[in-house]
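Hi everyone,

Forwarding the result from last night's run.
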Amino acid sequence: MKVFEEKQSFRQWWLLLVAVAALGIPMAFIIDDLLIGNLENISIELLIALITLLPFIFLWKLSLHTKIDQSGITTWWEPFHFLEKKFLWKDLKEVYVRKYNPLTEYGGWGIRGLGKTRAYNVSGKQGIQLVNPKGNFLIGTQKPSEAEAVIKKYKT
């Protein structure tokens, strides 16, 4: 039995750069106040720094999981298992790996799409396209050739 498993996380260099830049402003105020001995605003500035940092911590912890096995294709976001999607082979009309444009086709990365066209993606331009009667679903992948080999094994 052959199984494909992939875990992807938001680790793009530009995301880290934005986090450092966003955190730099409140940190500059904190350092300035510490240097001049003005401690009355430190707690507010620390709170602002923490609030600024929280979205980046969230993105750092968020990961997309994909599993392809004999029963079908499953994908979910950790830690949000309630967003799990399970696609059984018998329910899929088409399954194939393709190149796509995340910005023009889905409006970016993450949990994207409306109506019958949806995507879960983290980075890159390769994805596993799933077509069923309910609509189209794309799962981004950094391992397109490995995914394609397992899909060919189970697709009937």
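The mean pLDDT is 88.

Cheers,
N.
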